[in-house]
Design a protein that fits this description.
- This protein has about 160 residues and is mostly beta strands.
- The chain has a domain at about 20-125: Deoxyuridine triphosphatase (dUTPase) (Deoxyuridine 5'-Triphosphate Nucleotidohydrolase, Chain A).
- The protein has 1 helix and 10 strands, in the order βββββαβββββ.
- The radius of gyration is 20 Å and the shape is globular.
């Protein structure tokens, strides 16, 4: 496993919150916490969405992106997920990280200070050099799209 140095700046409204951390030795994601005011949770109505502040700004190394991913427990228990999943934290962004949460559940969902709301997964990236061509090389699959790599039979439940 490759390790990198991740520079994190804690903003004033997150002064008392812990820095992101892996919750187990094999965890891929760092937990992100809500930096909302104490005693004043954000409430996401069913069908609603909001940008939740983390109180953190990052300096990712070049060639590394941060993927903001949902926490499976929030999705399963409450129907709350990261709306633009995965969100992208670019290495040249220096502002506060906000997490866009959406509530697909049936009840309002309160986001309290210090609640673990998402996870940050670091990933190596590449950039493409675009080359326009008149034709693409042939493949066995060709232009067959959605569902074309399955059994070839449509499954029906009549």
């Amino acid at each position: 496993m490759r390790k990198i140095k991740l520079r994190v700046m804690r903003l004033a409204h997150a002064a008392d919150l812990p820095l992101p951390a892996y919750q187990s030795a094999g965890a891929a994601g760092l937990d992100l916490m809500a930096a909302v005011p104490a005693g004043a949770p954000l409430v996401i109505a069913p069908g609603g969405r909001t940008a939740v502040p983390t109180g953190l700004a990052f300096a990712l190394p070049p060639g590394i992106e941060g993927q903001i991913r949902p926490r499976s427990g929030l999705a399963l228990r409450y129907g709350v997920t990261v709306l633009n999943s995965p969100g992208t934290l670019d290495p040249d962004y220096r502002g506060e990280l906000h997490v866009i949460l959406a509530n697909f559940g049936e009840a309002p969902f309160p986001v309290a200070r210090g609640a673990r709301i998402a996870q940050l997964v670091l990933s190596a990236t590449v950039q493409a050099s675009i080359c326009e061509v008149a034709n693409l090389d042939e493949t066995t699959r060709g232009v067959r799209g959605f569902g074309s790599t399955g059994t070839g039979r449509e499954e029906r439940s009549d």
